[in-house]
Structure to design on (427 residues):
């Protein structure tokens, strides 16, 4: 009886508090311009009406509720929050392998929280975290804390640790074997291992699987080569398991070249990340199946500019030039793209550089924005919810200085950030 009375008292108190909580005022955002992502044009001026976490109306002039808060953003461009489909919240500039050894998981969680806020304040309101690099499922804690409103950050899709073969791309190969230095990824040496690891990761909160399909890369006399790590049959087993598990995300592969890319596309992965070289057949299949390439130009530029010695710098810059030329081939072949920067090894909050490089290497600003926003929303499983300023979509809205259709570098000048109807940054 006592427990019943206590329960009733709590329920009544909750009802009273709810009744006393004021309904959030509608917000009207006004600016000189507003981006229509699909059309690749500007609406001038632009206004967005937000109630709670959703967009209610958009247009040059909208009906403003009498009690609305009006935010005049002046000579700026309203646009959807940016999407980065390849980030590493648990990495920062410096030796990646040593971060796992020298920093505790607790320390890395704190740094990931700081990274998530930096990305959000730079206008990235949605991201796909592509592996904690040895921190297991700790990214689930970051995502859950963001979703609960405990910390500031983008809405996230995450993989947990990446998956790798023994002796593969992220294994601790160059260390004293007697030290038993652990890999930065989870081992899976067969189709059965892949399924087992994916089930473990799903239990711990992953949204998709990130698999290392290639590693170490070589560019000699203009010819690019890289060994594959999983067969087509093994990747297909992973794709089938991802389809069985709840969620729309599938399998993403770290994959720089052939024959691995052909195996991955035939298996039906969701994205080919890095994609330095793709065969004509692979490109045709990617176009037909709408499998996205995620170029990650920004990371290689950073590595080239911050290499340990001139020889390493020349290697990285040669690979970037090769990739840029291949990117033009991929564009001409109709390969669909998504924007992903690989931020983490370079400073969080600076990854708008990826869109600048995609434009520099041959994509129009309008197409780069569509790749980032329309295709990015699809890849992350949020199509019809983010990536456009439309009624019913989540209120993920930013304002940038200038006009990104005329100069894509405007994306690096974010003045206003709203995610899910909450304002995080004002001019």
């Amino acid at each position: 009886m006592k427990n019943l009375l206590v329960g009733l008292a709590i329920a009544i108190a909750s009802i009273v508090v709810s009744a006393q909580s004021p309904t959030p005022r509608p917000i009207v955002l006004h600016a000189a311009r507003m981006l229509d992502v699909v059309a690749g044009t500007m609406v001038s001026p632009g206004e967005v009406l937000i109630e709670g976490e959703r967009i209610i109306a958009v247009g040059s002039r909208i009906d403003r509720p009498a009690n609305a808060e009006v935010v005049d953003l002046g000579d700026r461009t309203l646009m959807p929050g940016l999407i980065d489909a390849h980030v590493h919240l648990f990495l920062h500039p410096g030796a990646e392998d040593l971060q796992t050894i020298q920093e505790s998981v607790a320390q890395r969680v704190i740094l990931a929280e700081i990274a998530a806020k930096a990305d959000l304040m730079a206008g990235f309101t949605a991201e796909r975290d592509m592996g904690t690099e040895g921190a297991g499922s700790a990214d689930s804690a970051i995502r859950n804390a963001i979703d609960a409103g405990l910390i500031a950050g983008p809405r996230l899709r995450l993989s947990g640790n990446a998956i790798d073969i023994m002796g593969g791309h992220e294994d601790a190969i160059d260390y004293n074997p007697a030290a038993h230095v652990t890999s930065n990824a989870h081992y899976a040496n067969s189709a059965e291992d892949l399924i087992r690891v994916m089930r473990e990761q799903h239990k711990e909160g992953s949204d998709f699987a990130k698999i290392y399909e290639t590693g170490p890369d070589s560019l000699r006399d203009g010819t690019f080569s890289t060994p594959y790590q999983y067969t087509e049959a093994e990747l297909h087993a992973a794709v089938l398991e991802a389809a069985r598990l709840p969620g729309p995300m599938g399998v993403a592969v770290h994959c720089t070249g052939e024959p691995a890319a052909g195996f991955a596309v035939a298996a039906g992965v969701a994205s080919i990340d890095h994609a330095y070289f793709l065969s004509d057949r692979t490109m045709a299949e990617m176009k037909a199946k709408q499998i996205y390439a995620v170029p990650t130009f920004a990371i290689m530029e950073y590595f080239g500019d911050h290499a340990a010695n001139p020889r390493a710098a020349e290697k990285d810059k040669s690979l970037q030039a090769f990739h840029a030329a291949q990117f033009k081939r991929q564009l001409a072949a109709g390969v669909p793209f998504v924007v992903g920067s690989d931020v983490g090894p370079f400073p969080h909050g600076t990854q708008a550089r990826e869109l600048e490089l995609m434009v520099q290497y041959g994509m129009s600003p309008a197409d780069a924005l569509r790749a980032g926003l329309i295709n990015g929303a699809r890849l992350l499983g949020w199509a019809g919810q983010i990536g456009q300023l439309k009624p019913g979509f989540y209120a993920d809205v930013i304002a940038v200085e200038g006009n990104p259709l005329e100069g894509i570098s405007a994306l690096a000048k974010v003045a206003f950030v709203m995610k899910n109807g909450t304002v995080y940054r004002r001019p």
